[in-house]
Design a protein that fits this description.
Elements: E1 2-5, H1 7-14, E2 20-27, H2 34-53, E3 61-68, H3 73-85, E4 91-94, H4 98-111, E5 115-117, E6 132-134, H5 139-152, E7 157-163, H6 166-178, E8 185-192, H7 200-207, E9 214-217, H8 223-233, E10 240-242, H9 249-255, H10 257-260, E11 264-267, H11 283-297, H12 303-322, H13 327-335, E12 340-341, E13 346-347, E14 363-368, E15 371-374
Parallel strand pairs: 2-3, 2-4, 4-5, 5-6, 7-8, 7-9, 9-10
Antiparallel strand pairs: 1-3, 11-14, 12-13, 14-15
Length: 376
């Protein structure tokens, strides 16, 4: 177990009289989802430090109490309980993965405190749960964005190879559900364990399926990188789509620029910050976060750190408007959020919508020459 406290937290512990707002986090900073959680943890620490330097929220300093759950849903539940009962936080950000998110929300919903998830599955917010929100696009939306692009390119019959992790399985199910809406037929359907080191057997089956026009790989972690390399090794010359679960420079590095060439996926404005139009409403916040994170860490921004940025923005904006940290008041303020530009999209929540994004928040991206490019 690892516990992270910001410098502000240590000061606050030493000086208990200091006005403070305690925000909790359970993040997968290590383990198989560390490539997602590490930039999330660094982002939260950075933003807390920055906001406190500017005076905090309505004059109160923020204390971030963050635990590293290592991607383990059982640890995430334990830490969420500790954050609520022992650390007495007023809200929680986290749930790097779908599995850890589902564990955390079970605790926060019972405690009735706001929770903003950083994971993708649609089940997190559908059906709506009173105190649970999320910042990433849903897996269902990713399927829809991909199928829109396929439809534009005359693709009607595809092969799918999905990870069996929580995200991969959920997106596989969502893609199967919405495919008919776009005239897409899934004629080959294979899976792999996230720990598998080779997927050539499954891909050979897809390659041998008559009529396959493209391949879609729902998944995150190292699996999609292996699938990408295997596709090139088997000389499968078909349009190849990945999910937003691998929307980072790390994916290109793991797969190799040559193997990743031409891969398409739905992503965020953050990955193509330098290509955004000057009047793009997301450009100021994307540019500011990118500059701050890269200066602070010396590493490139990722979509996943952006999810944490947006969660912190949504939460602190709601607290400032509510003029209170009382959980129900913060929840109501989040639900009243309208037109708030983040790195992932422009959020407008309601009591019926705890995601706050529509399909336009996705950008269709393609890897060219080892770089992310916009598909027009």
């Amino acid at each position: 177990m690892k516990t992270f406290l910001t410098t502000t937290a240590l000061i606050a512990l030493a000086l208990p009289a200091l006005a403070e707002i305690r925000i909790g986090a359970s993040i997968s900073a290590t383990g198989p989802a560390a490539f997602l959680g590490d930039p999330q943890h660094k982002t939260l620490e950075m933003l807390v430090e920055d906001l406190n330097a500017k005076g905090g929220i309505n004059g109160e300093q923020i204390v971030l109490v963050a635990y590293d759950d290592g991607g383990d849903p059982n640890k995430a539940r334990t830490f969420a309980t500790r954050l609520v009962e022992d650390d007495e936080v007023v809200a929680i950000i986290g749930g790097t993965t779908t599995g850890t998110t589902m564990s955390i929300l079970a605790v926060t919903e019972e405690a009735q405190i706001p929770f903003i998830s950083l994971a993708g599955a649609i089940d997190i917010v559908k059906p709506v749960k009173p105190f649970t929100f999320k910042t990433p696009h849903t897996d269902r939306m990713a399927c829809q964005k991909i199928f829109e692009d396929m439809q534009k390119n005359g693709i009607t019959r595809i092969g799918m190879i999905s990870g069996t992790d929580g995200f991969g399985a959920s997106m596989q199910a969502q893609c199967k559900d919405v495919a008919p809406d776009y005239g897409i037929e899934i004629i080959a359907d294979e899976t792999y364990d996230p720990k598998d080191a080779d997927m050539t057997a499954q891909l050979t089956k897809i390659k041998g399926t008559e009529g396959v026009q493209a391949i879609l790989n729902p998944g995150f972690g190292q699996g999609p990188s292996i699938v990408t390399r295997n596709v090139r090794q088997l000389a499968i010359d078909l349009p190849f789509y990945q999910s937003h679960g691998v929307a980072s420079d790390g994916f290109i590095e793991l797969a190799g620029a040559e193997a990743a060439e031409g891969v398409r996926l739905p992503g965020t404005a953050l990955l193509v910050a330098g290509l955004l139009a000057a009047d793009d409403p997301q450009k100021p916040v994307v540019d500011a976060y990118k500059a701050m994170f890269e200066a602070k860490t010396g590493t490139p921004v990722s979509t996943f750190g952006g999810y944490a940025h947006d969660a912190f923005l949504i939460l602190t904006d709601a607290m400032a408007r509510a003029g209170s940290t009382e959980p129900a008041a913060v929840r109501d303020a989040i639900e009243a959020t309208a037109g708030l530009a983040g790195t992932t999209g422009i959020y407008t929540f309601s009591p019926e919508d705890h995601l706050g994004l529509d399909l336009s928040a996705f950008r269709m991206l393609e890897i060219q020459g080892g770089k992310w490019t916009l598909v027009e």
